[in-house]
Design a protein that fits this description.
Elements (H helix, E strand, L loop, with lengths): L1 H5 L2 H21 L16
Length: about 45
Amino acid sequence: MSNGNRGTRPPALLFAVTCLLLLVTLVLFSADGLDFGLPFTDRSG
């Protein structure tokens, strides 16, 4: 039963890493000075 609890840790870490990667990518793409919206939305002008 203790093994079930241990299997909940890896997914959480993976989720955090994925979120961090997404955030970094967003920040890098939004480095132009976007309002944290859609990157391709600012392409209109």
